[in-house]
């Protein structure tokens, strides 16, 4: 299938990026505008709610203050019936917000044994104040407006009600108890002062609250009953909870209704409590326990934002289409000359470096590209010739390194056990170079019938120089180790030879030991090498650390080395190794270390020499993981088996 052209990719990239930017800008603008609008509406609704609540609270508090003042006056002195009526009329005249007032005294027993009721009442009627005496049939002591303040001993606001036969208006009653202090100090209940407030002014006030075009306000009683509502049939006949049932809403809206009448101020988003998605702002009217709720339809809130977003989207789409048209024209002007250049470069790709290039069309980037292709063609031809020569040289070097590796491995002894015709000793060893050739080596050979020389060494550096130095060292040690010479003498002589004319300043660490096959005695010299581990028959492992460290070979010509000794019992092993084992690093830059060597030797107790050696190498590689091998790994494991019975 033909790959997509530059023009197609350019148009696609511009389209995707432009569309993404357009929708990102539109989305941000929409969300920002919506959030700003919500904040502004919330601020205005909050201010309107507080102003309306303050207006209502001012009226209610003035009524409560006047009523409590009248109650305190009755507590301060005794008044006869005429004076009581005068107080009532004066209080009503002084407080135009009060529709009617009454003083209902605690009933007293008359001489005939019957209760005497006294509750004079004044109210407004046709612009005048009229007196209404209490009827004997009106048993007010059982009425809530009298009984509740008597029991609670504090002012009580009634639920709103429709006063039929009196003012024939929607009203609410405030009842304030008054008392008489007795000689014992206790207060004896004497009666209740009531103040009726017609709510027609309140209904008008709430109904005139307008938010947006269709927003409205409702007033709720303490138990959630509607005091005002756009639908007059709801007033005093419906509550938040019956409305919720009519709407078929769930428990969540029931909890919302409880929140609205909880006496706190707040706001609610995205609720359909009133039949449509709306935002609610509510605040309590403290004196009466009412709640004023502003209902803001969300559809109307977001209409302007949606209209603005649609208009912006239309403009953005039109602009994007115009820009894409311009991009198409520009892309074609670029890709046409490139097409001619592609035909010419296909010949170059096939190896025809002398293929003619198209003539320079314009003095622009495409023309510069044509000229650059011509330069590239000439340089590529030269590079291919040079690469051919380099590849041939590299292959020759790799072949020589492979041969050097094979030669290096061939000079190491491979016969295990080392003395197949004798049972005193068993031995296994291996070398894992980090590169094609390395500087580690091991060796073992008989000096005479009763002595076996054991050598493990690590030359400084890697690669071909280390391998040559390794070969020289191995040859010198084998040539110097003669019968009757100690390991210290051998190391001293070899060091003198290596240090002489050592212009490259190379050195080698060596552990050289001479084992007496009949007695198990080991005379050894450690020239700066890793101390070996002695594995006892009972499985305990001991690190053979010398009392004083000795210098590596090849540094100073006149160094004299010393010999140390140990005696191997039947079944004991010597574990010799180079630092490629203990200094192997993992990805966390942690070294394998001597402690892990001991753990592995303990784990491999009872395994054969070959199994133990290969298992140790495998453990080192598992520890290093994906990290490349940084140094040669060499291990020699010897087990002394003693003389045959």
UniProtKB/TrEMBL annotation:
Keyword Transmembrane helix: yes
Gene3D superfamilies the record matches: 6.10.340.10, PAS domain (3.30.450.20), PPM-type phosphatase domain (3.60.40.10)
Matching PROSITE patterns: HAMP, PPM_2
InterPro entries named among the record's database cross-references: Bact_Sigma-Reg, HAMP_dom, PPM-type-like_dom_sf, PPM-type_phosphatase-like_dom
SMART domains: HAMP, PP2C_SIG
UniProt KW keywords: Hydrolase, Membrane, Transmembrane, Transmembrane helix
Transmembrane regions: 308-331
Boundaries of every HAMP domain copy: 332-385
Highest taxon in the source lineage: Bacteria
Domain PPM-type phosphatase, chain residue ranges per copy: 424-640
Keyword Translocase carried by entry: no
Name listed for the protein in its UniProt record: SpoIIE family protein phosphatase
Source species: Thiorhodococcus fuscus
